[in-house]
């Protein structure tokens, strides 16, 4: 269990850091407007953004199996770890096919939302409240991104906020996996 705990923490840490690689846009000339252009536009610019996204995807995929060992033996906990790996697979697709970045980003929001719902079903009460708040923020940012795209205003801002939310939620989930003892039965 200790090895799984350390492996999952390291992999989630690498995944979150690499997923936050878009922040390099503030230090590199990209030609992408952080206010108007969706963050996915960075994937057609300097290759560093695609490379970091691919590293993140691999780390998310690899984090799933050790997380699988740490959760209780029930479908909702297993679904949480599977959703982490599924998120990683879609992130890899986004890095490989940047032209589908907007559609894949919407799919990432769905996967994250489903994963957070599965956490709500098995996390203990204090942590469960964090997951509920996280789900509310995921839904709110997803709606904000859709509205920004439809209105043609501030799409860049809202897509970047969405990435911050995703990274934060995965950091919270990784923290839970590292600090909480591994339960073998469902919380009641």
Reconstruct the topology from this structure:
Elements: H1 2-19, H2 47-70, H3 75-96, H4 101-122, H5 125-151, H6 155-179
Helix pairs in contact: 1-2, 1-6, 2-3, 3-4, 4-5, 5-6
Write up this protein.
- This protein is mainly alpha-helical.
- Helix content is 73%, strand content 0%.
- The chain is built from six helices and no strands.
- The chain has helices at residues 2-19, 47-70, 75-96, 101-122, 125-151, 155-179.
- The longest helix is centred in the last third of the chain and has 27 residues, at 125-151.
- It is globular and about 45 Å long.
Query: What is the terminal-to-terminal distance?
Result: 23 Å
DSSP strand count: 0
**What structural class is derived from the secondary structure elements?**
mainly alpha
Radius of gyration: 16 Å
Task: Summarize, please.
This protein is mainly alpha-helical and about 190 residues long.
List keywords for this structure.
188 residues; mainly alpha
